[in-house]
Each structure stands twice: as C-alpha cells, then as structure tokens.
Amino acid sequence: MKYLFFVMLILVAESSCSTVNKNEHKPLIPENLISVKLDNIFTGVASDQTKADIQYLLYGLKNAYVGRVVFNEDQWQIFLKKIELLSLLKFDNINSFCEAIDTVLDSLPDNHLKTNSCGIRKKPTLRIGKNVAGTQVWKISTIPKNVGLIGISTFPSKNNKLWNGFAESFKKIEKTKALIIDLRGNGGGDDSMGRRLAKFLLGQECPPMVFKKITSQTPETFALYLNEVLSEIDYLKKNKKDVPAYLTDEQTQWEEKFVNSKKGQYPPIETKSFSRKAVDKKMIHYNKPLYVLADQGCGSSCESTIDALRSHPRFILVGKNTKGQHAFGNVLPITLPNSKIEILLASHHLKFIDKANIEKTGFHPSIIVRDDEDALSHVLEIIR
To answer: Between 47-63 and 2-15, two packed helices, what is the crossing angle to 10 degrees?
Structure first.
C-alpha cells in the first residue's frame, strides 16, 4: 500500500541513526525452514529486494505490532531471528518466499499474524451448514414453533448503512420461546453490532470477560490505521462511489493521532485494566434459551461477539470449535514494498478473567454437530 510505504520509509529513515549491536548472536536456523532449498535462484524478487522486504517487515514488527510487548523476551527474539534468517535464503518465486514468511509467523500463538493472500494456512472446510443470512449482512425472523432466528454473516463497520434497521428488528424476537443466533462462517470485522445485540438480550452492559487490554500507540501503528482508511477511500473514488462521512472523519482522526504520537503525546503502549461485575439476573431482557451456531469460519469479532453473548446465563454454543482469533485484535495490513506480500499485524492484545486461551483452538461448543449435519436443524430438533 503506497501510503504506508512512504510513511514507513520516513520512520525507518529517522531510526537509521540508532546504534547497531555488532555482537548480536548468530541467527538461529529454525527447524521448520530446513526444507527450504538454499541453492535455488530466486526468480520472483532479486535478493537485495528480498532483504529490503525483510528489513521492512522487521521494522513493522518491532514498532507497530503489539506482540513485541506480549511475548516473553526469549520467544520474541527467537522469532525475530527466524524472520531475519529469511533474508539469507534464496527462493524459486514469490509464492515460496511468502510461504516461508508465513511459516515463521505461524510459530507465534497469534492466529491473526499471517500473510493475507498466500501462505501455508488453508481455509477450513465448513461442513455444518450455511449461515441463514446468506448474502445479506444480517437477517432477523421468527420461524415455526415461535423460535427467533438471527443470522449475521459478517461484521462491517457499525457506521455502515448495511446495518440500517438491525437494532429496530430486535422486537421481532422478544416474545419467542427460544432464540438461535447464527454466526457460521462469520470471519469478523467490527463487533460493535454483535455487542449491541448482546446488550439488548442481557438488558444491561455486557460484563467484560477481559481484565487487561494492551494497545500499541506508536506512530507506526497509527500510520497503519491511517493507511487502511486512505486505501478504502482510494478504492471508493477509483470505482466512482461516494465516500461516506465516517471515513473522512476517521482519516482526520488517524492523521491527528499519527502527528501527535510523533510529538510524544501518546505512550507507545497503553494498558487498561477492567473489573467484572456479575450479571444482574433481574435485568435480563431475554431470559430464554439462547443457542449460538458457530464453526471454524467464526473468528475475530465473531468470537468477541460470542464472548459477550456467553455472559447470558442461558447461552449454549452449538457446532464446531471456532477459529481461535480472539486474543489479538484490531488487525492492520502492512504491504512489503518489493514482493507486495501483505501481512496482518494486530494492534491490541486481551487477557481474560477466566484465563481462557482459545488462540488457534477456538471456543469449544457445548453441543457438537457432526460433519455434514446442519447445525440449525440439529438445534430445532432439540427445541421441538
């Protein structure tokens, strides 16, 4: 992405005068890269370009990625050495270069940290039925036997007009005897509307399952936020579409934060602590069985929505384990300047009260649905 490239170049140049430790340990040979052939001629990107891409990635990891303060020092330094080693190898093509990067990224317990358009991780096969929302963002209805059904296929920005009428439609399910929320295949986005639904059902703010949130606030992190907004605006303009006001507002917001962070007005890392209050059962608005359908396609904001919904005393998760992309969030893309490989870096990390560690494993359902069985049909059989 061209905006980030120029912003990051400025930041790299400003830091280039720092002292280099000439006595650094020799880069480790990671066991999961031994299979890479060292004698291949890299035809996709010249070796000097490969080295430049790796230095660019290292700069982003060390300055924009929240994981730099989350993982223990030994684990973090070994990871950086593995990344650095890639600049010493030769590859057949860009795809093999990308796969090597993704292999190293996958060594950390952060399921968001990955290459976005290539790599070693395959998309899961979803085999317990399709989301009832279909091609729509959301769909709310009542079905026979007085059962409420809400399907949410994705979570676009809370400001997106695709959410028009969503909250107003909650009244359709108020008097039903049970509610099914379908999150199958929902890869995430902005969980604001998922949390709004959870708040409606609970009749109160959802007690946080998080006791600590760690957020990166460096100029490099804000540059990534700004770049993402500028890219979206650029895409809309190129396709002759209107730019919504909320995007121009976000552009102004991230420009100001970027400038102010360079002036030292933000600490590089912000840590917030939270206390959890018990759910007031007298205030619960929808105190009936709440079935949530999920599978391996449910990740990120889909999982944080589940996290909010599981505060409900009658919550039941049905289906398969979710994706396991919950502890790291607010993911921002960084594009390597030569190979154009896009990599996702998280800007915040969550620590949970119940010490739940679902990263790369996901939430485990109370009711497991077999492959090739429809999860919705399974729940309807239970209700009826």
So the answer is: 80
Residue the block writes with tokens 């009749």? 203
Q: Residue holding tokens 């119940």?
A: 354
Tokens read off for 296: 């391996």
In a domain, 194, yes or no: yes
Domain shared by 152 and 193, yes or no: yes
Structural domain count, the chain: 3
Look up the domain containing 59 and give its range. Answer: 2-16+26-115
Instruction: Determine, yes or no, domain membership for 303.
Output: yes
Q: Domain ends where: 100, 115, 130?
A: 115
For 155-174, write each residue's pLDDT tens digit. Answer: 999 999 999 999 999 999 99
- Count CB-CB contacts under 10 A for residue 161: 9
pTM exceeds 0.85? no
Kindly tell me the burial class for residue 140, based on how many C-beta atoms sit within 10 Å of its own C-beta (0-12, 13-18, 19 or more): buried
- Reported as a single tens digit per residue, the pLDDT across 220-235 is 999 999 999 998 999 9
> Residue 309's CB: how many other CB atoms inside 10 A?
21
Q: What is the mean pLDDT of the chain?
A: 86
Q: What is the pLDDT of residues 351-370, one digit of tens each?
A: 988 766 789 999 999 999 99
Residue 217 in domain:
no
**Domain shared by 246 and 173, yes or no:** no
Looking up residue 152, the CATH number of its domain turns out to be: 3.90.226.10
- Nearest Cα to 258, choosing from 215, 216, 223? 223
Task: Note whether 182 and 149 are within 8 A (CB).
Answer: yes
Cα 291-296-298 angle, rounded to 5 deg:
60
Sheet strands side by side (includes 290-294): 138-143, 147-152, 178-182, 290-294, 315-319, 367-368
